[in-house]
Amino acid sequence: MFGLDAATALALVDSYGAVAVFVVFALEGALVGKVLPARTLFVAAVVAVGVEAIAVLPVFAAAVIGATLGQAVVFTVVRRFDADPTSLPLVPVGESRLDGAGRWFDRWGLPAVAASNAVPGTRGWLAVPTANASSVSAPRFAAASLVGSAAYVGALLAVGVAVALGFGSAAELLGAEWVTAL
Hints:
Elements: H1 2-16, H2 18-29, H3 38-49, H4 53-81, H5 95-108, H6 110-117, H7 127-133, H8 138-174, H9 176-181
Transmembrane segments: 6-29, 41-65, 141-167
Subcellular location: Cell membrane
Organism: Halorubrum kocurii JCM 14978
């Protein structure tokens, strides 16, 4: 199954570049069900563009900005329209997880938003309780979201570079025929 996801991710990156990364991370940030795992897409994008900083920077920026924008949209919709995104079948976050996220925010404040965004599996959960039960402004929430998303994507970048360098070493060992078959 990982092979299928990686092939799909590489096809998306090949066709749409950093725009595909932006869209997938924005959907993930908006708590929408995963169309394609964002981590797989990001690592595939890094492998596709190479490890040079100038090539990776747009992919990194697209992921961070997409995730931050998606979370800011959820925050704003919850705050302005008193919406409950967890009532939608596309949003895979249950009430018990939101209660735990709310307790996190009550205890730690905005640093909890940044920390939760840096941890896989909890990304974006604090958008709803923060919007519902606090006086935090949208720009401050977005800034905390951006910090956490940058840390998360930075860790993914390290994985992507390691994978890309591993493919380079494997290509050298197996010869040029392997690279063209990939």
